[in-house]
Amino acid sequence: MVTSFIELTVRIPEDIKTLQKSIEIELSKHGKSLRWAITKVDVEKQIAQVEAVVIKDIDR
User: Fold this and answer.
1) How many whole angstroms separate alpha carbon 56 and alpha carbon 27?
2) Could you give phi then psi for residue 45, rounded to 5 degrees?
3) Can you tell me whether residue 12 is helix, strand or coil?
4) Residues 40-59: pLDDT tens digits?
5) What's the number of CA atoms in the CB half-sphere (13 Å) around residue 43?
6) What is the separation of C-alpha 31 from the centre of its chain, rounded to a whole number of angstroms?
7) What dihedral do alpha carbons 32, 37, 5, 11 form, nearest 10°?
8) Domain count, the chain
């Protein structure tokens, strides 16, 4: 397994209750998240910056 630190930008959905799910879906594309945090929000552009630590299995 490999541990990585990633940063990504996620669109803030109209229904804010689905923001967590949106973030988790985007993170799953990079591996399994160990932890994540929203570090910046741009209200005008309706985007959130997320920093996360993810793990991936390596093919041998």
Assistant:
1) 11
2) -90, -10
3) coil
4) 999 999 999 999 999 998 87
5) 0
6) 10
7) 80
8) 1
